[in-house]
Specification:
Keywords: ATP-binding, Nucleotide-binding. This protein has 246 residues and is α/β, with parallel strands linked by helices. The protein has 12 helices and 5 strands. It has 2 domains: 59 residues, no CATH class; 173 residues, P-loop containing nucleotide triphosphate hydrolases (Rossmann fold), CATH 3.40.50. Helix content is 56%, strand content 11%.
């Protein structure tokens, strides 16, 4: 009968419950009351589904690498506002539809912090997508050619949080300006966006390169945005210097 019960649980995709039930069968020394057993099975199924959901959200986000809030370096030379970063861990900025702007020179950890925030958002059940912004523009250009542009834009719009990394490495042409404007307009006041850039916000007008559109985009991005401005030398350079010479 127990084998049949386990098989039915698997057929119903109650994987967490089936593993928990199998554990109780193997551990004969554990003596549950009926109420305790039901609670144990339900909690096991709930935890299993939550873990699979988080794993699915992380895979869908397509982060470039793993990064966690606990690993952020708060060395004073970096100028990281520890209180602000700790508050971001609760992801209230997503509930409040706020943006985050992360600026700093090459290698100071902009992408790491942006990704760590994204990972935390996934763990809290939010839909997140990470993009290298230049690769995103190339993808959208191809989407226009094959007729899937609207589908791609709608997919971006539905995300609770998107991360646009490496903004400002190249000046925007008219097509990229229009794409960025559409993305930001769709999300303005509805969803949150993190933008990581080597350039200070004051230089973004030059990157967008068209005054009217630049004003419109930046008004929507910068308004009510939280800022993380990183200082110091490259973290990658520091890491290499610390490696022992063989």
């Amino acid at each position: 009968m127990n084998d049949q019960t386990l098989e039915k649980m698997k057929q119903l995709r109650l994987y967490g419950m089936s593993r928990a039930f199998n554990t109780t069968l193997e551990a004969s020394s554990i003596d549950y009351t009926n109420d305790e057993l039901i609670a144990y099975l339900i909690n096991s199924e709930y935890d299993d589904r939550e873990n699979r959901k988080v794993e699915r959200l992380i895979n869908t986000a397509k982060f470039r690498y793993k990064a966690f809030m606990e690993e952020i370096d708060f060395d004073s030379s970096r100028g990281v506002d520890k209180n602000l970063v700790n508050r971001l861990e609760f992801c209230d900025f997503i509930k409040n539809k706020q943006n985050i702007l992360v600026c700093g020179s090459t290698g100071v950890g902009k992408s790491f912090i942006a990704t760590a925030i994204g990972y935390k958002a996934c763990m809290m059940g939010y839909k997140v997508m990470y993009f290298n912004i230049n690769k995103l523009f190339s993808k959208l250009k191809m989407a226009k050619a094959d007729g899937s542009y609207i589908k791609e834009i709608n997919k971006i719009e539905k995300q609770d949080l998107i991360i646009l990394d490496d903004f400002g490495l190249q000046s925007l042409d008219n097509f990229k300006r229009q794409d960025l404007m559409e993305i930001i307009e769709d999300r303005h006041g509805k969803k949150s966006t993190i933008i990581a850039s080597q350039l200070p916000v004051e230089s973004w007008h030059e990157v967008i390169a068209e005054q009217t559109i630049a004003d419109a985009i930046l008004d929507r991005i910068v308004h009510n945005a939280l800022r993380i401005e990183l200082k110091g030398e490259s973290m990658r350079k520091k890491k290499i210097e610390k490696q022992p010479i063989e």
